[in-house]
Amino acid sequence: MSLNTWLIYLLASIGLSLSPGPNGLLALTHGAMYGQRRTLFTIAGGVLGFVAVIALSMFGIGALIRTSAQWLTVLKWGGGLYLVWLGIQVWRAPPVTLVERSQSGPGSARRMFGQGVLSATTNPKALLFFTAFLPQFMNAEHSLLLQFAILAGTFAATELLTEYLLASAAQRISPWLARAGRRFNRACGGVFMALGALLPLRG
């Protein structure tokens, strides 16, 4: 993978991590309820779940393109259309809201970790998204295992950092989300639509 391709993927991963979704909302909520340090259990579970979903997506795609490299082109264009559709849905989504701070004491580390894993792995949209998103950066001629290490590792790092920042700032950004959440959703939706329109055009 070239440095230019990786940088584009890094920027796209940051945009994906910042966009409204179950794991981001869970990190925000747990950050408000339990504090940023305990929310690391939730975040770690979510990151592990996303790595599993990326593995399922990439190796499924790898098995398909081994039959014919032309499948990668089909997946890129089909994935581009899906990203545009997803961008439209995010654009139209209502603002994210948080629950009030819990008065029941700290959550169980195991339970919080499990909630993070389940939030990432039980959402069928995550598998659909990565099946659409990852082919834009894959090369049928290169090692699938190496590409998995780079793509999954990069996304895991950006997701962990982004969710931690969200959890840390949960109390401060909650009022902002109430005021500007719809504009934020439209910005994220615009990013997805741009990715869907432009990435399949790359070589």
TrEMBL record:
Belongs to the Rht family. The lineage of its organism: Bacteria, Pseudomonadati, Pseudomonadota, Betaproteobacteria, Burkholderiales. This is LysE family translocator. PANTHER family: ARGININE EXPORTER PROTEIN ARGO (PTHR30086), HOMOSERINE_HOMOSERINE LACTONE EFFLUX PROTEIN (PTHR30086:SF14). It is found in: Cell membrane. The chain crosses the membrane at residues 6-28, 40-65, 71-91, 112-138, 144-162. InterPro entries: LeuE-type (IPR001123). Pfam families: LysE (PF01810). It comes from Comamonas flocculans. Keywords: Cell membrane, Membrane, Transmembrane, Transmembrane helix. GO terms for molecular function: homoserine transmembrane transporter activity. It is a multi-pass membrane protein. GO terms for cellular component: plasma membrane.
